[in-house]
Amino acid sequence: MPMEPLPDLSTLSLADIARLAAEKRLPPVEKWNPDHCGDSEMRIARDGTWFHQGSPIGRETMVRLFSSILRREPDGSHVLVTPVEKLDIAVEDAPFVAVELKSEGEGRDRTLAFRIKNGDIVTAGPAHALILRETPDGPHPYLHVRGGMEALVARSVYYELMNLALEEDADRIGLWSEGAFFPLDGAA
């Protein structure tokens, strides 16, 4: 059964985006608790590229499938899980990367929707926080995706966010989305 092609985010309304996100059916990985079976010999690079035994996985449909059975464990590690097996997977930074942004509205009425590299669409809001972490090589924005897993916001998308925030000309550099304010100035 082939996977449907990814929709063009720029042509979708926020209502369309909300509908697509609601229709996304993921396996109930949080309910699966098989015995640990070993290492998958897979890793997710910082740029969101998936590798198996050192070679990039070139089939987008395989990456989308694997990302649907990805889970973060209570100890912070990541696994690929099915009802019968659980395999470790190495994650260099975040397991996902937000590669596209759609913004509608202004100020407190703004909504920010992100396309994740695996095709998921996530709308920033109370359930999907957008946070900025200071690291030795500068600030890095992250978006909560699901189950304690985050998407690193790609640099080009971060620049879009900052431009929107600066255009707001507010007291604090940041953006609202779905009624929640997300500071982008690094202040706590």
Write structural notes for this entry.
With 188 residues, the protein is an alpha+beta fold. It folds into 2 domains: 83 residues, duf1285 like fold (Roll); 88 residues, Roll (duf1285 protein fold), CATH 2.30.270. The protein has a 6-stranded mixed beta sheet. A 6-stranded mixed beta sheet has the order 9-8-7-12-11-10.
Entry keywords:
duf1285 protein fold; duf1285 like fold; 188 residues; 14 strands; 6-stranded mixed beta sheet; single chain; alpha+beta; 2 domains; elongated
What's a quick, concise take on this entry?
The chain has three helices and 14 strands. It has helices at residues 14-23, 60-68, 155-168, and strands spanning 36-44, 50-52, 55-56, 70-72, 78-81, 86-91, 96-104, 111-116, 121-123, 130-135, 138-146, 149-153, 174-177, 180-183.
- CATH topology label of the largest domain: duf1285 protein fold
State the name of the first-level CATH class of the largest domain: Mainly Beta
- Radius of gyration, in Å, reads 17 Å
What is the 3D shape? Answer: elongated
Give the number of domains: 2
* Helix/strand order, N-terminal first: HEEEHEEEEEEEEEHEE
Count of beta strands:
14
Briefly note the structural class of the backbone: alpha+beta
Helix coverage percent = 10-25%
Percent strand equals 35-45%
Mean pLDDT over all positions = 87
Question: Taking strands numbered 1, 2, ... along the chain, how are they ordered across the largest sheet?
Answer: 3-2-1-6-5-4
Q: What is the CATH architecture assignment of the largest domain?
A: Roll
Q: What's the CATH H-level superfamily name of the largest domain?
A: duf1285 protein
Distance between the termini: 47 Å
Number of helical segments? 3
Flag low-confidence runs: none
Q: Sheet bearing the most strands, described?
A: 6 strands, mixed
Domain DUF1285: 27-94, 95-184
Organism: Sphingobium psychrophilum
Protein name: DUF1285 domain-containing protein
Pfam family, one: DUF1285_C
